[in-house]
Amino acid sequence: MKRFILFGAPGSGKGTMGELIQRDFGYAKISTGDILRAEIERGSADGLRARSFMEDGGLVPDELVIELVRQRLERGDLDGGYVMDGYPRTLVQAEALTAVPSESERAIFLEVSEAEAIRRLQARLTCRECGAIYHRENKPPRQAGVCDVCGGAVEPRADDAAAAVRRRFRVYARRTLPVIRYYEHRQVLARVDGNGTAASVYERIRELIS
Asked: Partners of 8 in the beta sheet?
């Protein structure tokens, strides 16, 4: 079982890169955001607990996120490999993931400038109902303002405004530095220039995976 871990600040494009890897290599993309939304939709106890933290603007506790990821990894549908999108975000989460056996592991850190992150996120659109993500230039919904998946309203996120992105960018850098150092110490970290077009960034990642 191969494991790829995509890191990157908000706007680095890790979600897009994860989708492309899934498309071309058949590895399942596992996103904690998707897992949390699914649990909230299901109305599970874990989902309701996570929702309470998210609605208060807080971080979902490590132990809850770790347990939900563990459950996802045990489903038996990963077919030889998977890509973690945005997880782990803390050192505790990284250590918990390491405890899950894998044939090989590669952590890919997408490095982007703050200016590029702001430019990308200000073009991002999100479905208010199911959380599906679109982009005004690269991936617009088929009908303007309407989600292709569920028909919900598609709109910019409040935290994608320039000032909010700057704050998120700096908080991410502080919180993620210990995780980056952890994977550097394990000698599985690759730093990838995440600036430029999605196609050019993906070509750099393809070389690592291939």
From this structure: 110
